[in-house]
Design a protein that fits this description.
The longest helix is centred in the N-terminal third of the chain and has 19 residues. Helix 6 links the parallel strand 4 and strand 5. By secondary structure, this protein is of the alpha/beta class. The protein has one domain: Rossmann fold (3-Layer(aba) Sandwich), CATH 3.40.50. Strands 2-3-1-4-5 form a five-stranded parallel β-sheet, sandwiched between helices. Helix 3 packs antiparallel against helix 4 and helix 4 runs antiparallel to helix 5. The protein has seven helices and five strands.
């Protein structure tokens, strides 16, 4: 099983890319659990909610992995939850940090912020996309993880991502 995580700042096409890649490679993708969780929450989220989101994301991956057709695309991972927790709350739950060290993906697609921002009630920082991109980029680099930056219009992004993923097969 090949696992590919799509990460990046808010509103940079992660979901569109994960869905499109899954369709192209005739497999499934794991949606971002945070959207499901936060849409059901009847109060502002707090730091402990990020732990529940992390657990839900990992559980979703585990559940869907057996249905994948040789490759699984994940719309986000624990890197995103870690970065967001540290940004919003100044720290990250140790459980998330420990799981981050043991989670494994064969490849990361890091989405660039060169597409227009789309407003969404769950998004909070339209002006901070370059800041978050740099954090993700440096984190992947520092951890020695295999990744590619995905940029351009929707079609260019998909073609580049397809090429990168095909090289894994």
């Amino acid at each position: 099983m090949i696992k590919v995580a799509v990460i990046g700042p808010e509103s940079t096409g992660k979901t569109t890319l994960a869905k499109s890649l899954a369709a192209h490679f005739n497999t499934i993708w794991v949606p971002e659990y945070a959207r499901t969780y936060l849409n059901q929450l009847d109060r502002p989220y707090v730091q402990s909610d990020l732990l529940e989101i992390a657990k839900g994301q990992m559980e979703s991956e585990k559940e869907l992995e057996s249905s994948a057709n040789g490759i699984l695309f994940c719309d986000t991972d624990l890197h995103v939850i870690k970065v967001w927790s540290e940004y919003k709350f100044g720290e990250c739950d140790p459980w998330i940090l420990n799981r981050l060290e043991t989670q494994y993906y064969d490849f990361f697609l890091l989405t660039f912020f060169d597409i227009p921002y789309e407003d969404d009630p769950l998004r909070e920082n339209p002006e901070e996309r370059p800041y978050f991109f740099d954090i993700y980029y440096n984190m992947l680099l520092d951890r020695g993880l295999h990744f590619a930056v995905i940029q351009g219009n929707t079609n260019e992004r998909l073609e580049l991502a397809k090429k990168m993923v095909s090289s894994l097969l």
